[in-house]
Write the structure tokens for this entry.
Amino acid sequence: MSYDSGCSRLSGERVVRCQEELVRTRKTSWHASMLAVALACLASLNVAAQGAGSFEARLKELGIVLPPAPKPLASYVPSVRTGNLVYLAGQGPIVDGKATVTGKVGAQLTEAEGYKVARASILVSLAVLRAEIGSLDRVTRIVKVVGWVNSAPGFTRQPWVINGASDLLVEIFGEAGRHARSAVGANELPLDIPVEIEMVVEVAPG
């Protein structure tokens, strides 16, 4: 027998009290349901936040240690911040002012070797970025990457070389690491490095 049918079989004041009790019961049940939904939403948000994790922690998971941020080779600064955008000067495989790898991709280096150089070069850019903003956890989006490849005559696979940088950015930053990009061939690069990469990054205010 339902609660409604029980009320309908009463009379007088008992009917009124029964119906009032029914209304209170339904309201209590509705509030309890809404509270359960709200708590479930909060739990989902917490899980999502934990799942998003930290970009700095992601570096550790990947076993990546950023190199020291290099000093500029000439008359420029390694990074400039305007608003929420950070513009990073071109970086390559250079340590203490000396190239660690040299040569043209398609001649002295293979495409696969160029890919690895691009991957190493973007780590230098990230080191400069961290020095500018304090922590990579403040990154909200990798906006643009421009990569130059020191190319042998006839070599036209610059985009696949610069994938070394782009793929790593996605590994570290996930969807926030997907970016617009240009990959350009050059007949020479400073110190005969195989790859030079510059980047524009959006960061959280503060």
Notes: The beta strands are 79-82, 85-91, 94-95, 98-99, 139-150, 180-186, 195-203. The chain has five helices and seven strands. The domain at 59-203 is CATH 3.30.1330.40 (60s Ribosomal Protein L30; Chain: A;). The first helix runs from residue 3 to 8.
